[in-house]
C-alpha cells in the first residue's frame, strides 16, 4: 500500500485521532491505522472509522443532554 500524499510505503501501526464536537474535545491516542513510513500520514480502515463515528455520535447525544440542563 502506498501513501496518497508522498507515495511512500504504508505500515500497520497506530495513530491519534482528535476532534472537537459540541464544546467537547474527543481524543483517541492509539487507533489502529496504516501509517506512512515517510511522512506519517495515517489512513484508517472502515472498521476503525465506523467505531470512531459511533463514539462521536454518542458524545453528540450526551452533550446534547447536558446543553438542555444548563
Characterization of the model:
The protein is of the alpha+beta class and about 70 residues long. It has one domain: Ubiquitin-like (UB roll) (Roll). Helices cover about 35% and strands about 40% of the residues. It is built from 1 helix and 3 strands. It has one helix at about 45-70; strands at about 10-20, 25-35, 40-45. Strands 1-2-3 form a 3-stranded antiparallel β-sheet, with helices on one face.
**Helix-strand topology string:** EEEH
Proportion of β residues?
35-45%
Which bin fits the share of residues in helices? 25-40%
Question: In angstroms, what is the radius of gyration?
Answer: 15 Å
Structural domain tally: 1
Task: Provide the CATH top-level class.
Answer: Alpha Beta
Structural class by SSE content = alpha+beta
Named CATH architecture: Roll
Q: How many beta-strand elements?
A: 3
Q: With helices defined by DSSP (H or I, 4 residues minimum), what is the helix count?
A: 1
- Distance from N terminus to C terminus (CA atoms, Å) equals 49 Å
Shape call: elongated
Q: Largest beta sheet: what is the strand line-up? A: 1-2-3
Low-confidence stretches: none
CATH topology group = Ubiquitin-like (UB roll)
Q: Overall mean pLDDT score? A: 91
Summarize the main sheet. 3 strands, antiparallel
SSE blueprint:
Blueprint: E1 10-21, E2 24-36, E3 42-43, H1 46-69
Antiparallel strand pairs: 1-2, 2-3
Structural descriptors:
3 strands, single chain, Ubiquitin-like (UB roll), 3-stranded antiparallel β-sheet, 70 residues, 39% strand, alpha+beta, elongated
